[in-house]
Write a structure and sequence with these properties.
With 99 residues, the protein is α+β, with helices and mostly antiparallel strands. 61% of the residues lie in helices and 13% in strands. It has one domain. It is flat, with a radius of gyration of 15 Å.
Length: 99
């Protein structure tokens, strides 16, 4: 796929964090947009062909996006905008947003 299309596709799961993080009133919307753009640009760069004309959808593209989801979930946790699955006796899973 083209680098522009890859950037658009890679941004989709990360953009879901925008509204939630902006509502925290702790982070400026421009900062969140910059983080998402940087994370997506990294994914595109990791998966580009040698001539940079195409981006290959696969592990080299998906893993940086997954890491971006984890990073933005950490930000949500730090701001108190998270939820937990489990009681901690056998671990817990942190998710972004409150239920």
């Amino acid at each position: 796929m083209s680098p522009d299309l890859a950037h658009e596709i890679g941004s989709r799961p990360l953009l879901g964090f925008s509204r939630m993080l902006e509502r925290s009133n702790s982070i400026d919307a421009a900062v969140v947009a910059h983080w998402i753009d940087a994370l997506t640009r990294n994914a595109v760069a990791c998966a580009q062909s040698e001539d940079q004309a195409l981006v290959h959808k696969g592990k080299g593209f998906d893993d940086p996006i997954d890491s971006g989801i984890a990073a933005l979930t950490c930000v949500a946790y730090a701001l108190g905008h998270h939820h937990l699955f489990g009681d901690g006796t056998d671990g817990a899973i942190v998710g972004p947003g409150r239920f």
